[in-house]
Write a structure and sequence with these properties.
The protein has 4 helices and 13 strands. The protein is of the alpha+beta class. It folds into 2 domains: 45 residues, no CATH class; 102 residues, Pdz3 Domain, CATH 2.30.42.10. The strands form 4 sheets. Strands 4, 5, 8, 9, 10 and 11 form a 6-stranded antiparallel beta sheet that branches. The chain has a 3-stranded antiparallel beta sheet with strand order 1-2-3. It has a two-stranded antiparallel sheet with strand order 6-7. Strand 2 and strand 3 form a beta hairpin. It is globular and about 50 Å long. The two termini are 24 Å apart.
């Protein structure tokens, strides 16, 4: 466990790189506080599933290339068979790089979740964190100058191929560490 100089718990160690000197990874205590009750009750953490990945964007960024977008979450990819796919959310298809940031443009832009605007990163995170499996979610989408709404019930996120790694014997094992994309789920 990590403790600050004021002797308050700030994280729980999860792994250490054996080849490195004192390099370890920890779960922040606020996340641990949120998931421990569910781990105790169910033996695992359940997460709602949208099936969307992308980035928060500001309209000022898109004005650079004269694209018609609004503040919100830019949908870059949709997982086949996901709730977002079934609801008709559009994914991007035009890869571009702006100031060393990669975007996949052409998809929907989610401007709000259940009436909460997504114009600030904190609002986005609070909206996503508040959702649970079984909740009805309403998304306001902006695409090519038009706004529309879609609604669906959030199922539990299934184990996806990217969640698994091959063991030495060729069997699939869960990946324990490593998140490198921003997915729309808690």
């Amino acid at each position: 466990m990590w403790r600050s100089d004021r002797d308050k718990l700030i994280g729980i160690n999860t792994s250490i790189l054996a080849e490195a000197q004192n390099i370890g990874f920890a779960v922040p205590i606020n996340i641990a506080k949120r998931v421990i009750p569910e781990l105790v009750d169910r033996g695992r953490v359940t997460r709602p599933w949208f099936g969307i990945s992308g980035k928060l964007v500001k309209k000022e960024l898109m004005e650079i290339i004269n694209m018609s977008l609004v503040d919100g979450f830019l949908v870059e990819t949709i997982e086949p068979g996901s709730p977002a796919h079934q609801a008709g959310v559009h994914e991007g298809g035009l890869p571009i790089t702006i100031a060393e940031m990669e975007f996949l443009l052409g998809g929907d832009n989610i401007t709000d979740i259940n009436g909460q605007s997504l114009d600030e990163p904190e609002k986005f995170m609070n909206s996503v964190r508040s959702l649970r499996v079984g909740d009805k979610v309403s998304l306001t989408l902006y695409h090519e100058g038009k706004t529309r709404k879609v609604e669906f019930i959030l199922p539990e996120r299934p184990i996806l191929p990217g969640d698994l790694r091959l063991s030495g014997s060729g069997t699939l094992l869960p990946i324990r560490n490593g998140v490198n994309r921003f997915f729309l789920h808690r």
